[in-house]
Specification:
One of its GO terms (molecular function) is metalloendopeptidase activity. By secondary structure, the protein is α+β, with helices and mostly antiparallel strands. It has two domains: 236 residues, Glucose Permease (Domain IIA); 43 residues, Membrane-bound Lytic Murein Transglycosylase D, Chain A. Helices cover 14% and strands 27% of the residues. The chain is built from five helices and 16 strands. The strands form four sheets. Strands 2, 5, 6, 7, 8, 9, 10, 11, 12 and 13 form a ten-stranded antiparallel sheet that branches. The longest helix has 13 residues.
């Protein structure tokens, strides 16, 4: 119900969702009465993964009705590891420092799809939002929500911890769309402003493949807010780097804000390949 009128069609329902999202921190309203199709598609509550063999074409668009998100922790961000290739394996989220027992908050309103243990992730909460985006909160010590529960933006959903494959207490945060992990820093500005980087964000493979990024530093961010920009970015001319005396793959990757793995895959070389002075590398 909105006032005394019933929600008669999908358009009204979606507009009401947008209304609640915009003011979810100030208004004591829940979205439990809404029946959006995104909460029905592949709604799996017994395991972390809801989508398998996803056939989604790049670039694809994610729409946001909010301009800001709620911080997942109550203190200033200290990012200890970023989205990218790490220790010869993909790291599909960002790690944010916290103390065991610290409150963890939902960054946007949505519905809890999974709350339980998952291999490697330990105690984990997965929330799906009305635009189809899912946020993952892992390595927790306890739960404050359960599956199929609707949550507000900024609501406490869990307690920080060190469960699963973890080397110390922290929050592992992922953003996924239909099973595809996306670099969270492409969608969200992890500064004190807590801004979402755009109303309409187009995702190319560059922002989904971990080997394109280094977990040790932030990638060079390019916001793509239209299909045309996404295609132009996809087809952009790659920078060519000419190897100089004393160059190493790690040094070249660091100066160009990319990953060693990406340089190797793009140029079909190995990490152990000896670089030659004058050799051209596509960055």
């Amino acid at each position: 119900m909105i006032g005394q009128k019933k929600l008669k069609n999908t358009k009204i329902v979606k507009n009401y969702i947008n209304y609640i999202q915009t003011d979810s921190l100030e208004k004591d309203k829940m979205i439990k009465d809404l029946n959006d199709e995104c909460f029905a598609e592949n709604w799996v509550t017994t395991q972390f993964t809801a989508y398998r063999n996803t056939n989604i074409k790049f670039p694809f668009k994610i729409e946001f009705s909010d301009s800001t998100y709620a911080s997942p922790i109550s203190k200033k961000y200290v990012i200890t590891s970023r989205y990218g290739w790490r220790r010869n394996r993909p790291h599909r989220g960002i790690d944010i420092d916290l103390v065991i027992g610290d409150s963890v908050f939902s960054i946007l309103p949505g519905k809890v799809r999974f709350a339980g243990r998952s291999s490697g992730y330990g105690r984990t909460v997965v929330i799906r939002h009305n635009n189809g985006l899912e946020t993952v909160y892992a390595h927790l010590s306890g739960f404050k929500v359960k599956k199929n529960e609707f949550v507000k933006k900024g609501q406490v959903i869990a307690l920080g911890g060190n469960s699963g494959r973890s080397r110390g207490s922290h929050l592992h945060l992922e953003t996924r769309y239909k099973g595809i992990a996306i670099n969270p820093e492409y969608l969200l500005d992890f500064s004190s402003d807590h801004k979402i980087r755009g109303k309409n964000l187009w995702v190319t493979r560059d922002w989904a493949k971990t080997y394109y990024h280094s977990s040790k530093r932030q990638s060079r961010l390019v916001t793509l807010d239209s299909y045309e920009k996404a295609l132009a970015y996809k087809n952009r001319k790659r920078k060519v780097y000419i190897v100089k005396s004393g160059d190493t793959l790690s040094g070249i990757a660091y100066r160009n804000r990319t990953s060693i793995s990406r340089i190797c895959k793009t140029n079909k070389i190995r990490k152990t390949t000896t670089l030659r002075i004058g050799q051209k590398l596509i960055i």
